[in-house]
Specification:
The protein is an alpha/beta fold. It has a domain of 204 residues: Rossmann fold (3-Layer(aba) Sandwich). It is built from ten helices and 13 strands. Strands 3-2-1-4-5-6-11 form a seven-stranded parallel β-sheet, with helices on both faces. β5, α5 and β6 form a beta-alpha-beta unit. α1 packs across α7 and α4 packs parallel to α5. It binds nicotinamide-adenine-dinucleotide. The site of nicotinamide-adenine-dinucleotide has 32 residues, from α1, α4 and β7.
Length: 322
């Protein structure tokens, strides 16, 4: 069992959606300091507003791809553990496929090189269920083939292969966590990279209609962000997780129709929905087999969807997003 308490921890992408919740949880868990490195591509100061009031929180506006930058931060802040959360959201694949792919690989490369030379001790690397592509069987365990359908997903899968192989060949202290679809407060609500839950709620609020691609019967496994964060912390604590790839999800597939209906019910919307053609690169079905997380991490999702979606939408409402 490794103790996070008292350790100096670096979070790449710590001003983003999941990363900022992780920063809060690390501070609450009594770490020595939390060092957030984010280039603010999609990160927001609001996400880390509370963390910024804590003396043990340090922010660097930097690019995690840069070896020299990361080396100097890790040395100066005497970092022991790195959680790699930085990425550029999936939809960026449709605008700039090359960077959507490369950012994942380049950040992983930098972090691996620094781990190899002993700049820090442990890497908890974040993958994505998107690396699997659409389910060839369900629920999907960690042996499910990877067949990415977007450059983002290809970059995630490539980074995973790199991280996993390095951990074996060089015997590095690494765990790979593969979350399914996260939702919760602070998920990006603006611009072309916005997530479906806040986008739909905003559309309804402003007199528009919910938009669904295809028949809406495609499924995703929605996990509440704080459950994911708990899984990430367990991945550090449990030494048995080293060298492993471990799914984190709710273990339940949910159709997009069901998700949108939950948002409509919350907003009291009874009108029509707009149906757009299916996006060819969209994954059809994702549902996690979480038995490995249960066995190795002692993980179980605590938040049920009905309560989670209400808390999420309440948060968007209270923060004037919807
Ligand atoms: N959100 C999900 O549903 C989901 C599902 C599975 C896996 N994941 C993974 O979880 C991690 C966090 O995802 P998220 O949803 O919080 O994404 P996010 O976009 O909200 O956060 C990513 C952060 O990384 C930062 N960033 C991007 N490029 C950077 C760079 N070169 N240097 C420094 N910072 C950079 C962004 O500014 C942003 O703050 C990612 O690895 C993602 O692939 C997310």
């Amino acid at each position: 069992m490794a103790q996070i308490e008292g350790k100096n921890v670096l979070v790449t992408g710590g001003a983003g959606f999941i990363g900022s919740h992780l920063c809060d949880a690390l501070l609450a868990n009594g770490v020595g300091k939390v060092v957030c490195v984010d280039n603010f591509f999609l990160g927001k100061m609001e996400n880390i507003a509370e963390a910024m009031t804590n003396d043990n929180f340090v922010l660097y506006r930097d690019d995690c791809r840069q070896f020299g930058v990361m080396q100097s931060i890790i040395e100066r802040e005497e970092i022991e553990v790195v959680f790699n959360m930085a990425t550029i959201a999936l939809n960026y694949s449709f605008f700039n496929p090359f960077d959507a792919y490369l950012v994942n690989v380049q950040i992983a490369n930098t972090l691996l090189e620094l781990l190899k030379v002993g700049a820090y001790k442990t890497l908890i690397h974040t993958s994505s269920s998107e690396a699997y592509g659409t389910a060839q069987y369900s629920p999907m365990d960690e042996n499910h083939p990877t067949d990415p359908t977007t450059p983002y997903a290809a970059g995630k899968a490539a980074a995973d292969l790199m991280v996993h192989s390095f951990s074996k060949v060089l015997d590095l202290d690494i765990s790979i966590i593969r979350p399914f679809n996260n939702y919760g407060p602070r998920q990006n609500a603006e611009g072309p990279l916005a997530a479906i839950i806040p986008v739909t709620a905003k559309r309804i609020k402003h007199g528009g209609r919910p938009v669904i691609h295809g028949d809406g019967e495609q499924t995703r496994d929605f996990i509440y962000v704080k459950d994911t964060v708990r899984g990430l912390l367990l991945a550090y604590e449990k030494k048995e997780a080293r060298g492993k790839i471990i799914n984190l999800g709710s273990g339940k597939g949910m159709t997009m129709n069901h998700l949108l209906q939950g948002i409509c019910d919350y907003m009291g919307y009874k009108g029509k929905w707009d149906h757009l053609p299916e996006r060819t690169s969209d994954v059809r079905n994702l549902c996690a087999d979480i038995r490995l997380a249960e066995k190795i991490l002692g993980f179980e999702p605590k938040m049920c969807f009905d309560r989670g979606i209400k808390e999420t939408l309440d948060w968007y409402k209270n923060n004037s997003v919807i």
